[in-house]
Amino acid sequence: MIVDFHCHIVPPDFAGRHTELSLRDATYTALFPNGPGRTADTDALLRDMDATSVDRAVVMGWGWTDREIAAAANDYLIASARAHPDRLSAFASVNPAWGNAAVVEAQRCLDAGAVGIGELHPDTQGFDICDPDVIRPVMELLRDRSLPITVHASEPVGHMYPGKGQNTPDKLLRFVSGFPDNRIVLAHLGGGLPFYAAMPEVRKSLANVWYDTAALPYLYSASAIEASVATAGADSLLFGSDYPLLTQQRVLDYVRSAQLDPGATHVIMGANAFALLFGSQNG
Prior knowledge:
It is a single chain. Helix content is 44%, strand content 11%. By secondary structure, the chain is α/β, with parallel strands linked by helices. The protein has a single domain, classed as Metal-dependent hydrolases (TIM Barrel, Alpha-Beta Barrel). α4 links the parallel β2 (56-60) and β3 (88-90). The protein is globular.
């Protein structure tokens, strides 16, 4: 089974609302500073999943800052997962900086069928990932339901790109250390955090943390996958494409090009994600 743990879809009408979305939502503005970006709806994603033999996808929003836009996107994600329960799982977007309103929206979405929260973009959403008081109410809700959260991560070095931000490994380590009982997925290989799992004290703090491969061909050679398996273990990695920014085929080929044993490739491609989403069943 192949599970893409990091896909973005939006309501079809969003494609024609670039100016409005740019004016209303800080995260959208940061991600698409040069005009309308590449977006996709449910039908497009399912067609591409069929073409690349991806069995299931986790669909999520970006870290919206506008509450109405977030709610509309969340409703679309949840409706898509309900319509295709064998193919899609929905995460909902909230902004912890909203305070109690974030918990209310998260509760609403989880009750409606979302199975996680994400992707969060702390930089554009205007909250400090290292301030546990801001994010604690959402984390406690997820902890009580044993559901995961996906957080955007950035590398402290390397080239710049829209949305890169400052959510770097040092900050992310402080964040995850404050919530040891939560299931946390750090996007984009956690900005390189798994490399530091070679330090025993760091690895201990990362016991309930996973890292996805979203957009990695933009950032690293495939040796980054090999290094992460060596330091953090194959069980901590999740295949994710960042669709439609990158095609699923491109990231599938990238992960498969890493020099890994077949067992490691198997768990990264889907078994880890399936276990995270559905428990201990076999992927």
